[in-house]
Structures are given as C-alpha cells and as structure tokens.
Amino acid sequence: RLLGAPGMPDKNTRHTLMFSATFPDDIQKLAHEFLRDDFLFLTVGRVGGACSDVTQAMIQIDHSEKRDKLMEPLSDVPTAKARTLVFVDTKRNADFLATLLSQENLPTTSIHGDRQQREREMALVDFKNGTCPILIATSVAARGLDIPKVEHVINYDLPSEIDEYVHRIGRTGRCGNLGTATS
C-alpha cells in the first residue's frame, strides 16, 4: 500500500531497498510490480536458509514432557549476559509460560500482539538489559527485532511455515556471534 500511495515518487526516480532473510513468492511479485524493471537482487548466503552461525537441534518428546524439557536449558540461563528467546504459538501460552517460569525463580517476561505498545517496549528493555534474560514470545518477535546477546532460541511450539522457522531462529547467531536453536 505504501509504495502505491498518492504522493510517492515514481518507481523510476526513487530508491527502494528491501531486506529479509526470506523472499516469498508474494513479495517477489510485489517487488516486480513496484520496482524498476532493472532492479538489483543481491543475496548474502542462501535466501530462506538458516545462518551457518546457528547450531540447530531437534528434540522429539511427548507433549506432556514439554514443560519439563523446557526447564532443562533455562535453569542455567539467568546470567547477566545470556539471553534465551522462547517462541510459542499463542498469546495465552506466552503469558502462561512467563508466569510459570517466573514462579520457578527464572526471571521471565513475554511479548505478543495483545500487549500494549508500552508493555512490549518494557518487556524488550527488560530482556535486553538482562533484568529478564528469558523472553517468551509469539511470532511478533520473529521479525524486525535486533536484540544483542540472544544465545539460544527455543521453538517451544514449532511454526507451521519454514519461513517463520528461519525468521525465528534468526534472532540468534547474528553479526558474527554464535547461537543455538532448539526445537
């Protein structure tokens, strides 16, 4: 909508830059429609692929074991430097797990679309400064956030799309740092 809005410079006179870890078909079509015919497509690494600085692990467990299994890596997390980002599928589960972990003396906060902007900003501040080194999030935090020192991403709930998985685990292993993603 923005690129086609009245008052926007013509596509032949403006400079448009697009950045993403993925480049889905619908976005490619949009790019062809709103960019000059001779646009430059530059990739770093493999589009849609995970960063090689992220070690990925998959653990197969029964649903009833998920909470206990989540506690294992988190018990060692609350240090001043380490950050762990846990992704869940629902807002309700984000708040539930944040409360559960806090009751286990694991400083935790949550972020999702039902929280007010101010609450989301405070949760990110607490996560970034280490007050709450564990952040439980829905996919709202999978894109557009650059949070330093995220050492571990845990997919408590697996996303249904591979692009979403790539964006989620891309919160760690950034800017030459190593990271771990566990699903």
From TrEMBL:
The keyword ATP-binding applies. GO terms for molecular function: ATP binding; hydrolase activity; RNA helicase activity. SMART domains: HELICc. Its EC number is 3.6.4.13. Keywords: ATP-binding, Helicase, Hydrolase, Nucleotide-binding. Pfam families: Helicase_C (PF00271). CDD domains: SF2_C_DEAD. Signal peptide: none annotated. Residues 69-183 form the Helicase C-terminal domain. PANTHER family: ATP-DEPENDENT RNA HELICASE DBP3. This is RNA helicase. It comes from Botryllus schlosseri.
